[in-house]
Amino acid sequence: MVSGAIGALDSLRAGRIGTLQAVRYIGRKPPQGWVGSQAEQVLDLGALTGAAQVHFRGTAREAALQYPKNANVAAAVALAGIGFDNTQVELLADPSVSRNIHEIEAEGDFGSFRFPLRGTPAVKPAYLFACGDERDS
Question: Of 24, 38, 55, 137, whose CB neighbour count within 10 A is largest?
Answer without folding.
Answer: 55
